[in-house]
Structure formats: C-alpha cells, structure tokens
Design goal:
Length: 278
Amino acid sequence: MATRVKQVEITAGDYMRVHWFPVRNYHRGRRTKQFRPSSAAQEKYNQKRRELHLRDLLHANFTDLDFACRLSYDGESPDIEAAQGCIRRFLRRLKRAYKRAGVELKYIYCTERGKHGGRVHHHLVVNACPALTDNPYFFRRMWNNGGLPGKSYVYAAPLEFACGKDGDYEDGGLTGLSKYIIYDKQKETDKQYSRSRNLVEPQVHESIGAISRAAVDRIVETGDLTELAARYPDYDIYKTQIDSFDAADPGAPPMSGTFVTVFLCRKAMTYNITGGRR
C-alpha cells in the first residue's frame, strides 16, 4: 500500500513545531486487517501528545514576564478534594484583584501529592499583572495558606524559556515544566491539569503532499537542514528529532515508518530559549 507524507505545522506564540510522518493511500479493493497497537503503547503515545499540547499552550499564552508558582500548606496538608477547593478560591481572589488592575487572568495549574512526604501541593502558571506582581510578596499574601490557619508558603519565579543545565532543551524551560506536569504519577484528580477558558489555542495547519518523501528522506539521510531552513525563513531551527517506528513496538504511534519533528523559534522573538529578554 503506497504512503505519502503528512505535514502538521503547529504555531504557538514565537514557537513552531513541524511534524512529517507517513500516511497510507487507501485504494478500493479488499480490506486488510488493521494493526492495533497495544494499550500500553497507545497510552505512552497519548502521553507524549498531551505533553506537546501543554507545551504549545504555554508557548502560545505566556512569556518570560509571567510566573511559575508552587503553592503549599503549613502544617498538615488537606486532602485532594479540600485542596482543590483551596486553589479554586485562591484563583477567584486572584481574578478579582487582576480585574481591578485592568488585567485578565490566565492560568494553568495542577494539584498533586508529593512523591516523598505525600504532602498535597499545587503547581501554577499565571500571567503577570505588573501593578500587583512586581511586589514579591503578592502571591504569598493572596495564597494565605489556601485560606487555612498557618503560614503561607509560595515559591514564585519567572517562567524560563531556557535550555537545561547540560544544554539539552528537553531538560529545562517550559518543556521540562510540561513534561513534569503530564508525566507525574502522583495526581489523584480526574484531570492532569486545569486551565482558564481564555487561553489562546495553538494554530494547527495540516496538509498532505506539501513535502515529498524524497525531501524528507534527504533530511533523514544527510542531516542537511538547508532546504528546511529555506521553508521557514523567519524562524531559527533549534532542534530536530528523527524517530523510526514499528507499530508493534511499545510506545510507537499507530503508523509505522520514519517520523520527523522540527522545533523552531521566531528570529524576531522578544525572548529566547537561553533565558532573558533581548
């Protein structure tokens, strides 16, 4: 059965991700039995897709002026259900404060139980409101230990669009944050994360035949990115990922073949993956 190359371009803020992968050309005739990946392989593939989508949401809605916060509790932490009530009340207070300052609140958060001590806490990504968040104690005062008796413990730091300490982009910045949120196994809530409704969705453009199999094969075989760079003159390529899958392998997508993923960032972006504003 013949295959062609499907191209998926995902634009999120100043970042773009391009996928090229094989798709079948179906012809009329006798149907053949379709291969179904194992449940473990499908789940691993779905986890990776969720991680990438969360990263795209972060890139599309937040900058290095915004914040990553860890909200924890003094004394004995509440159970998951009670903690969910605490974070929702905190976000309502935050939304009212932002509205008075003329800024619309945007956020993504997750609630989890710590791996070692088993204490419940929250991870929150939230946009900045300069009139409020320039005060280093603002989030601590607003959290107020989730409205429970005790001291207020908050760690807040600007978001990092950064490489990891060893130069591996996968270990740092929003990539590391999205991977942490998605892959953590200690969550006891129905959702892996919650988000405000006003977040901008990444732009997705799909096409078949936009690039030939021969062009993809040249990139895979030679590693020459000249042709690829010419396709996206407004972007810098900071990473390429090439995977060859057999659909029967654990963690493989449903379709066998060579999958190419290219990660790009806009040349004219106001912040960059090494951290700090230009």
